[in-house]
TrEMBL record, chain A:
Organism: Cricetulus griseus
Name of this chain's protein: GATOR2 complex protein WDR24
InterPro entries (alphabetical): WD40/YVTN_repeat-like_dom_sf, WD40_repeat_CS, WD40_repeat_dom_sf, WD40_rpt, WDR24
Coiled-coil ranges (or none): none
Pathway field: Protein modification; protein ubiquitination
Ranges for region Disordered: 490-536, 580-609
Molecular functions per Gene Ontology: ubiquitin protein ligase activity; zinc ion binding
Catalytic activity: S-ubiquitinyl-[E2 ubiquitin-conjugating enzyme]-L-cysteine + [acceptor protein]-L-lysine = [E2 ubiquitin-conjugating enzyme]-L-cysteine + N(6)-ubiquitinyl-[acceptor protein]-L-lysine
From TrEMBL, chain B:
UniProt cross-references to InterPro entries, sorted A to Z: Sec13/Seh1_fam, WD40/YVTN_repeat-like_dom_sf, WD40_PAC1, WD40_repeat_dom_sf, WD40_rpt
Any GO CC annotation of this UniProt entry: Seh1-associated complex
Cited SMART domains: WD40 (SM00320)
Protein's UniProt keywords contain Nucleotide-binding: no
Residue ranges of WD repeats: 8-40, 274-306
UniProt region (Disordered), positions on chain: 327-360
GO MF term list: structural molecule activity
Protein name in UniProt: Nucleoporin SEH1
Subcellular location as annotated: Chromosome, Centromere, Kinetochore; Lysosome membrane; Nucleus, Nuclear pore complex
SUPFAM superfamilies: WD40 repeat-like
Subunit-level organization: Component of the Nup107-160 subcomplex of the nuclear pore complex (NPC). The Nup107-160 subcomplex includes NUP160, NUP133, NUP107, NUP98, NUP85, NUP43, NUP37, SEH1 and SEC13. The SEH1 subunit appears to be only weakly associated with the Nup107-160 subcomplex. Component of the GATOR2 subcomplex, composed of MIOS, SEC13, SEH1L, WDR24 and WDR59. The GATOR2 complex interacts with CASTOR1 and CASTOR2; the interaction is negatively regulated by arginine. The GATOR2 complex interacts with SESN1, SESN2 and SESN3; the interaction is negatively regulated by amino acids.
Lineage: Eukaryota, Metazoa, Chordata, Craniata, Vertebrata
Secretion signal, residue range per the UniProt entry: none
Length: 790, 360
């Protein structure tokens, strides 16, 4: 509200109103200028020179100043300016070097008043004195600036910049005699109008041409300049040397710059090439524009604030032949659209997080950044209340590291390194891997290995002691498994939860029974998932208890749907079915179901510490009594592999695939296997587990994978003595007939790992070179080369 | 559970992106201050800035690492309408002694006429490829025909998306069964009804990317989009950051069933939707196995999401921006199984679970 009242007073009682609008011009505009009453705007261009009235809803053409049948070159305007004291007075700069003044008060159709033909080349800029009615200044491509008194026929004085073309001239608003001029060579000059012989001050402001400048309307001595180097700089000219106060980086060369009225730190810019938008910058935040107007479809050539005391209306003319009025509140705000946060998950589960300070500060109460220290004190002294500054935005960057053990991916690395995949009997491999998994607290995986061993190894090999050993270990920390399977031995406290859990699973299998083709998969899900908190959980080391907390809640939804369901009577009849009908080919359904249940049984047995040895033995005994060949389980195993893969544990899928080899390979299509292999290898390489990755490649049977290591690698080596390329004859140089593989440190011939510098060809034993380079960065051979070992 | 390390980033404006490299030992940040910084992890586990340089003449929106097989290569994109490819050069200068590395611009991609809003390298098996998207709604795919020459990039595809694009994500699957696929999100708020996320799939026969058929529509502005690492799954998981966090599964319908010429049909299900940020969600990021999702929203918090065995996604933790212990992070501790402190999450997870079950 305060802002509004200020505007009103400044506009002497009549606030500007209007909306964002545009009108089509007949030709591209080169420059625009606003009348003092803020109700009219003049548009000038190569073939246009018109005055438009700015009305509430639209622009209305009022006057076409381009009269005469044969338009002269004098009418081809590069710049136009409307006198800020005399509503009838206009001046244009023509591309042929003529400066023309126009008197709108003339009764004839032709309003042309005076013609100054003094410049030899294009006049780039004209400028009226802000307070003196008759003084006009021009700057031209020919390198001269001229000051005209409109009461006289020719120029009063000529200023020679002594440098290249003049791009802009601007009278200072506060200092009566001062004007600034900018040049194509990057210089800015300050002149006293009374002293045409030499400039008061000159400094290099930009790299390349300075296209424009603008004096701050309020702050005396503040000059904004814009150049082809895409920068807008704000200079303090009051000090002895021009001091750069701010530097705004835009994305294209700056063609025009205009301070925004009533907003001390704001300025509007437009570009000469590429970029069609108009930006309003807060010079204190030099990287992100405060506002952006995107209406134009071609380069914006002229911008002007409609009223010197109203910050909300901006007028612009463009090469796309349109004249626009922009309302500040309709501007798009890039700051709002910019993404304030960055987030990335690291390899080991660590998170990098960058967020805008203000988003984070609110919560943690940390003090926000205290602002830019480059500001002088006086500049900060009175902050415009109408212009709340959001502060220099900055981000807080932090990395959340997972504590070792708990949530990191170390389980993956450990597992990859410790698994045995080949070279031993299957039973041993399974036992070993089960042990590894168990030691890393991955009980479900351990259990899977144990089961695989039971399935695929003949019972003779299973020493019950061995098995019991591992089982005992597992059950000590296998709570989730236990409560999902072993109903019989469940304590009363846990019983309820488990029952619910179980019933939930059964709900699914019940529904699945309707669709026999889907049964297997569902059941498989059922079986595996019940213990599967584990693989999903180690990443965060999440609590099993937390999951348990979920069950009662979950099942409250499930239970009412199946109130009549009685649990224990399902598993056991099925179990007997296996024994009774071990291989009924016509009962596909049963067949599919039964191994699943028997698998469950094996699980139950092995998991229950109470009757572990006896029940386990009896179960496996029962299995083999019924002469179930391992093939019988292949469907189950296949689904288990798929399950692990879909869960994101491709390590397990590939490891089992390798360990079981032919036993299971035929059941899984080649493409899927290859997918698993390549995924796992990629993952191993991410963790820099090159040896494991190589082993996997070697052990893989997928052709596409195993050829990964067979791509040829050629090493081109230079002889370390004569520096010539070595022939293919090994480590003896053809030319100097010396052995090239001498260790530069110990001077012995290297056998085995040989490391050498690609720069100087010297090298030797890996250990020796590493040790040497710890102490010195020069080549151990003394050749002076700065070797690099990485 | 998480140890927060605050890093004095010293960027002079907002940081818009953080990115780890393939091995997780390097990190790159980019900011509106037009610079990129590269951070290396020291032996002691601290992050040191080893390079900082001005990259663009406007806000840098994204920075991303190429696979190390192609060298130490970064790509960045900016409001200045360009995307750039950078390579670290190992020199003998004293930079190295000061622990600084030197990055050289190898290529500026100038094709866009508006702000380039995202840039992503394609998965390694596709070769050295780069996708960019821009505010005028064009997805561009570049390829470096010679991986040793990073200054040569050819524009392979220009795909109009109709809407101003904000983010892209490649499908990382290495499976020969999955064709290259790229998801594009849009933050265009003007056209309300149009779907703000599209998937394009490469067609071997036409050698072109074409829009995959999706039934699911997301009409709110999308700020970030991320495919989960595939790791041998037969389906794809995709997370979207819009006014909430959404997780989708995309199951390719088996080839035999579809006509051979057309794009693969994708069966798409939303498996979770979380509005817990209570505001715009800006970022989503997957862990390495695709089992945990992290999201960051306007509330200044990072929330972690995880599926349990029933495919119920639920909140697994909350971290505030400073990493100081928030009420939520106690959930992560093994000692405290109580969820009572965070009932809304729980309800949401149940909500998510019911959604999951509907589709399963």
């Amino acid at each position: 509200m305060e802002k509004m009242s200020r505007v009103t007073t400044a506009l002497s009682g009549s606030a500007l109103t209007g909306r964002t609008m545009h009108c089509h011009l007949d030709a591209p505009a080169n420059a625009i200028s606003v009348c003092r009453d803020a109700a009219q705007v003049v548009v000038a261009g190569r073939s246009i020179f018109k005055i438009y009235a700015i009305e509430e809803e639209q622009f209305v053409e009022k006057l076409n100043l381009r009269v005469g049948r044969k338009p002269s070159l004098n009418l081809s305007c590069a710049d136009v300016v409307w006198h800020q004291m005399d509503e009838n007075l206009l001046a244009t700069a023509a591309t042929n070097g003529v400066v023309v003044t126009w008197n709108l008060g003339r009764p004839s159709r032709n309003k042309q008043d005076q013609l100054f033909t003094e410049h030899k080349r294009t006049v780039n800029k004209v400028c009226f004195h802000p307070t003196e009615a008759h003084v006009l200044l021009s700057g031209s491509q020919d390198g001269f600036m001229k000051c005209f008194d409109l009461r006289r026929k020719d120029s009063v004085s000529t200023f020679s910049g002594q440098s290249e073309s003049v791009r802009d001239v601007q009278f200072s608003i506060r200092d009566y005699f001062t004007f600034a001029s900018t040049f194509e060579n990057g210089n800015v000059q300050l002149w006293d109008i009374r002293r045409p012989d030499r400039c008061e001050r000159m400094f290099t402001a930009h790299n390349g041409p300075v296209f424009c400048c603008d004096w701050h309307p309020e702050d005396r001595g503040w000059l904004a300049t814009g150049g082809r180097d895409k920068m807008v700089k704000v200079w303090d000219m009051t000090t002895h040397r021009a001091k750069e106060m701010h530097c705004v980086q835009t994305i294209a060369s700056v063609a025009r710059v205009k301070w925004r009225p009533e907003c001390r730190h704001h300025l509007a810019t437009c570009s000469m090439m590429v970029d069609h938008n108009i930006y309003v910058w807060d010079v204190r935040r030099p990287f992100v524009p405060a506002a952006m107007f995107e209406e134009h479809r071609d380069v914006t050539t002229g911008i002007a604030w409609r009223h010197p005391h109203d910050p909300s209306f901006l007028l612009s003319g463009s090469k796309d032949s349109t004249l626009c009025q922009h309302l500040f509140r309709d501007a798009s705000q890039p700051v709002e659209r910019a993404n304030p946060e960055g987030l990335c998950y690291g390899l080991f589960g660590d998170l990098a997080f960058a967020a805008k300070e203000s988003l984070v500060a609110a919560e943690s109460g940390r003090k926000p950044y205290m602002g830019d220290r480059r500001h002088p004190i006086f500049f900060k002294r009175k902050l415009d209340p109408a212009e709340p500054f959001s502060g220099l935005a900055s981000s807080a960057l932090s990395v959340f590291e997972t504590e070792s053990g708990g949530g990191s991916m170390s389980w993956f690395v450990d597992t990859a390194e410790r698994y045995a995949l080949a070279g031993r009997p299957l039973a041993e491999l399974c036992d070993h891997n089960a042990k590894v998994a168990r030691e890393l607290g991955r009980n479900q995986v351990a259990q899977t290995w144990t089961m695989l061993r039971i399935i695929y190894c003949s019972p003779g090999l299973v020493s019950s002691a061995n098995l019991n050993h591992s089982v005992g270990k597992g059950s000590s920390c296998g709570l989730p498994l236990m409560n999902s399977f072993n109903l019989k031995d469940m304590g009363p406290g846990l019983g309820s939860e488990t029952r619910l859990d179980r019933s939930k699973g059964d709900t699914r299998s019940d529904t699945a029974l309707l669709d026999s083709s889907a049964t297997l998969i569902t059941n498989e899900d059922n079986e595996e998932t019940e213990g599967s908190d584990v693989p999903a959980d180690y990443l965060l080391g999440d609590v099993e208890g937390e999951e348990d907390e979920l069950y009662p809640l979950d099942t409250e939804h499930v239970h009412p749907e199946e109130p009549e369901y009685v649990l224990p009577q399902e598993a056991f009849p099925l179990r007997h079915e296996i024994v009774d009908t071990p291989s009924g080919p016509e009962h596909l359904q049963d067949k599919a179901d039964s191994p699943h249940v028997s698998g469950n049984e094996a699980d139950t047995a092995s998991l229950a510490p109470v009757d572990s040895s006896s029940s386990l033995l009896s179960v496996s005994h029962a299995l083999y009594d019924s002469r179930l060949p391992p093939d019988f389980f292949s469907v189950l195993v296949r689904d288990m592999l798929h399950f692990y893969a879909e869960q994101g544990d491709v390590q397990m899928a590939v490891s089992v695939l390798i360990v079981l080899g032919e036993r299971v390979r035929k059941d899984i299509d080649e493409q899927t296997q290859e997918h698993w292999y390549t995924s796992y290898i990629d993952l191993l390489q991410r963790f820099c587990l090159w040896n494991v990755s190589n082993e996997v490649v070697k052990l893989s049977t997928s052709r596409a994978v195993s050829c990964l290591n067979q791509a040829s690698t050629t090493l081109h080596v230079n002889c370390s003595h004569c520096k010539r390329p070595m022939s293919s004859r090994g480590w003896v140089c053809d030319r100097c007939h010396r052995c090239a593989s001498m260790c530069a440190v110990c001077h012995h011939v290297v056998k085995g790992l040989f490391v050498w510098c690609q720069g100087c060809s010297h090298g030797g034993h890996l250990q020796h070179i590493m040790k040497w380079l710890e102490g010195s960065s020069h080549c151990p051979a003394g050749c002076g080369h700065l070797c690099e070992y990485s | 559970m998480f140890l927060p390390h605050s890093i004095e980033a010293d960027h002079k404006d907002l940081i818009h992106d953080v990115s780890f490299d393939f091995h997780g030992r390097r990190m790159a940040t980019c900011s509106s201050d037009q610079s990129i910084k590269v951070w290396d992890k020291s032996e002691s586990g601290h992050w040191h800035c080893t390079a900082s340089w001005k990259t663009h003449s406007g806000s840098v929106w994204h920075v991303t690492w190429a696979h190390p097989e192609f060298g130490q290569v970064l790509a960045s994109c900016s409001v200045d309408r360009t995307a750039a490819v950078w390579e670290e050069v190992v020199g003998e200068s004293n930079d190295k002694l000061r622990g600084q590395s030197h990055w050289v611009k190898r290529k500026t991609l100038l094709d866009s006429r508006t702000s380039v809003t995202d840039v992503k390298f394609a998965p390694k098996h596709m070769g050295l490829m780069l996708a960019t998207c821009s505010a005028d709604g064009i997805l561009r795919i570049y390829e470096a025909p010679d991986v040793m020459n990073l200054s040569q990039w050819s524009l392979q595809h220009e795909i109009p998306c109709k809407l101003s694009c904000s983010c892209i994500s490649w499908n990382p699957s290495i499976s020969p069964a999955h064709y290259p696929m790229i998801a594009v999100g849009s933050n265009d708020s003007s056209r309300k009804a149009m779907t703000k996320f599209q998937i394009f799939e490469y067609n071997e026969n036409t050698k072109k990317y074409s829009k995959a058929e999706i039934l699911m529509t997301v009409t709110d502005p999308v700020h970030d989009i991320a495919f989960a690492p595939n790791l041998g799954r037969s389906f794809h998981i995709l997370a979207i950051a819009t006014k909430d966090v959404r997780i989708f599964t995309l199951k390719p319908v088996r080839k035999e069933l579809t006509s051979s010429g057309g794009p693969t049909k994708l069966e798409i299900h939303m498996v979770a939707q979380f509005a817990n940020h209570n505001s715009q969600v800006w970022r989503v990021s997957w862990n390495i196995t695709g089992t945990m999702l992290a999201s960051a929203g306007d509330d200044g918090c990072v929330r972690l999401w995880k599926a349990n065995y029933m495919d119920n996604w639920k909140c697994a933790g909350i971290l505030n921006g400073k990493g100081s212990p928030v009420n939520g992070s106690s959930q992560l501790g093994n000692s405290n199984p109580s969820l009572s402190s965070n009932t809304p999450n729980l309800q949401n997870s149940l909500h998510g679970s019911s959604a999951g079950r509907k589709h399963s």
